[in-house]
Specification:
The chain has about 280 residues and is an alpha/beta fold. It contains 9 helices and 8 strands. The chain binds adenosine monophosphate and manganese (II) ion (3 copies).
């Protein structure tokens, strides 16, 4: 079975429209797909209007939050997108994203980079604005030579543009996910560059707050990272998730993960394998 429980569309910082994403997922043989845009369900909501055929689609989201001063991403899988509480919270989250973008712009201005808020907003063109929009604008202006440099020097973890005070706590967003009937899965646990001890503290807090899953496979992990995450998943008794974290077509990362990759952990998708698609 081929699954993909972590993907982005143009509703957040992805390059494909929701319809294009679904088409590509079908071409890649994906049988179970979750759309998990950053802090928005708009992409998923528009997909539900088109036929998906053999592909089973579940609603998802990738929520930004903070834990112990670290910007953490939590996937909410199998959420009910009609949940009014979730919708209200997401509207606040969208406002927080906008406020954060202004602060990022102010901070970059202090470093001599002019009009980045305006430029990033124009690129975002009404959808959820994020650091990739700032990076793209900085490249277009010739402020930096690549998106990677923009993140390495100005936008990545610990840099001036890494504004995280706006995000809710880990506990808060797990509550939102649960109130919408979803499963909270900690996204890409090794991206936060935590020490082993701190990562374990985070996992313990995540579990305590109601988190149920761990993203054992994100993108194309190394064998050693995979082994480590499978061990953590088993030790903390989490359900395992797998996703490409696809943003746009590239020559090294494609949609779809072989379901076997998380074995011997218990897969989170067992929850939806026998459920008919809502489409
Ligand atoms: P934000 O949602 O505004 O916090 O932006 C985070 C997003 O930036 C991530 O989801 C990635 O898509 C993207 N990102 C993070 N680091 C990098 C990087 N080094 N190069 C390019 N994109 C990145
Ligand atoms: Mn992203
Ligand atoms: Mn993420
Ligand atoms: Mn992602």
């Amino acid at each position: 079975m081929i699954v993909d429980l972590h993907t982005h569309t143009t509703a957040s910082d992805g390059g494909l429209s929701p319809a294009e994403l679904v088409l590509r997922a079908k071409e890649c043989g994906v049988q179970l797909l979750a759309v998990t845009d950053h802090d928005t369900i708009d992409g998923y909501t528009s997909i539900s209007e088109i036929s998906t055929g053999e592909l089973k689609l579940i609603a998802g989201i990738e929520l930004s939050c903070t834990w112990s001063g670290v910007n953490i991403h939590v996937l909410g899988l199998g959420i009910d997108t009609t949940c009014s509480r979730l919708q209200a919270e997401l509207s606040d989250q969208s406002a927080a994203r906008g406020e954060r973008a202004k602060i990022i712009g102010d901070r970059l201005a202090k470093l001599g980079f002019k009009d980045t808020f305006e430029g990033a907003s124009a690129l975002a063109d009404g959808r959820a604005i994020g650091r990739p929009d700032f990076a793209r604008f900085m490249v277009a202006q010739g402020y930096v030579d690549s998106m990677a440099t923009a993140f390495d020097k100005y936008l990545g973890a610990g840099k001036a543009g890494d504004v995280k005070a706006m995000w809710p706590s880990l506990e808060t967003i797990i509550n939102w996910i649960k109130s919408a009937g979803g499963v909270a899965v900690l996204a890409h646990p090794l991206h936060y560059k935590l020490t082993n001890a701190k990562l374990r503290r985070m996992l313990a807090d995540f579990k305590e707050a109601g988190g149920e899953g761990l993203e054992v496979c994100n993108g194309r992990p190394s064998p050693s990272d995979l082994n480590y995450l499978r061990q953590l998943c088993t030790q903390f008794d989490f359900e395992a998730s797998a996703g490409s974290d696809f943003h746009q077509p590239s020559n090294w990362l494609e949609l779809g993960c072989n379901a076997d990759i998380v074995a011997p952990c218990k897969p989170v998708w067992a929850r939806w394998q026998h459920v008919e698609s809502t489409i």
